[in-house]
Amino acid sequence: MLKGKVVGNIVSTNKFDSLKGYKFLEIQLIENKTLTDEFIIAVDRSISAGIGEEVLVATGSAARVGLDDVNSPVDALVVGIIDKIQN
Amino acid sequence: MLKGKVVGNIVSTNKFDSLKGYKFLEIQLIENKTLTDEFIIAVDRSISAGIGEEVLVATGSAARVGLDDVNSPVDALVVGIIDKIQN
Amino acid sequence: MLKGKVVGNIVSTNKFDSLKGYKFLEIQLIENKTLTDEFIIAVDRSISAGIGEEVLVATGSAARVGLDDVNSPVDALVVGIIDKIQN
Amino acid sequence: MLKGKVVGNIVSTNKFDSLKGYKFLEIQLIENKTLTDEFIIAVDRSISAGIGEEVLVATGSAARVGLDDVNSPVDALVVGIIDKIQN
Amino acid sequence: MLKGKVVGNIVSTNKFDSLKGYKFLEIQLIENKTLTDEFIIAVDRSISAGIGEEVLVATGSAARVGLDDVNSPVDALVVGIIDKIQN
Lengths: 87, 87, 87, 87, 87
What we know:
Five copies of one chain form a homopentamer. Chain A has one helix at residues 61-67, and strands at residues 2-11, 23-31, 34-44, 54-59, 76-81, 84-86. Chain A is mostly beta strands. The first copy, chain A, has one helix and six strands. Chain A is globular, with a radius of gyration of 13 Å. The first copy, chain A, has a single domain (2-81), classed as CATH 2.40.50.220. In chain A, strands 3-2-1-4-5 form a five-stranded antiparallel β-sheet, with helices on one face. The interface between A and B is medium-sized, with 33 and 26 residues. Strand 1 of chain A pairs antiparallel with strand 6 (84-86) of chain B.
């Protein structure tokens, strides 16, 4: 999974029917506790992550498995909010 | 999903039969509101994105799921047009 | 598979039900015997890797195969501890 | 899909039986009309791309779908020759 | 597929049962005839590649297909030895 910070909500009117109703979040990836210049767009179905929160993102076919909707063209899914990391 | 700007249409006469009729777009990826030096070629079946528009691209097996054509060798699909991002 | 060092435990209360009970480790990737600035979050189900240990991580759909839980949105799994590398 | 230029033919005697008879091409990726330092090895089954031609390469499970041979360990496939890109 | 040079054997005692008996090789990727700073760990089941040899590596679900063992968490497999590249 990837770790990132929610930085925006994607507004998209013209999209696949099977994606209607899904919330798309823009997520800025974090490496070594630092925000990088890499971003990913992930669906958030059930976690309700807000702007500024740090999240776990599952990518690839794992995203569709988590959505329980194997017929939607989704390749990234917010699967949890990170409370903290214990070192 | 990835975020990018449509920058070209690929013309390809010699290609797989199962790809005939698909429109292939060249998409320049966007990170942090800036165009990067990374590009991807994605199929656009139903979104009809034009040059200059910002789009969402699903990659990997998600592309075939979205095409509803699991027998075509496609690994990237335009799944929506981005109207704006709310921060 | 990727090679990395365990550097932290992710604490996440709000996450997918199907992920409850799984241990999520933050792993810093190693290239050429040097720690890089790239990290991945992987599930550790049965290896019990501790902070500081070097591990093998399987990514993509291989992770769900290894978990024997194809319905969880997991894309990275700790599959072994590296004792040493013989050159 | 990725865009690249065919730069070589791989000669490999000792390989998986299921790969015998396949042609493996070395392809140098192109970004922004410039050859990069990234390469990929892809199977060419039906396109017959020659050295110097620009091709479309499908990656991941899409490659096996295109080969119509889901039992071969192939992760990249030449799926078309690029005639030109219209901007 | 990726191209790389075998640089080491991974010794791992504590690993998934389904991985026991597999040989794990550390492979340094090659781009443009030059060794890079990127490495991958791949299983070698039948090729018997030795230290210093250049190999083809299939990644992702292709690796499990090649192993003929879809239940092992493997994401990279040595599928051939490169004799030479004809330009």
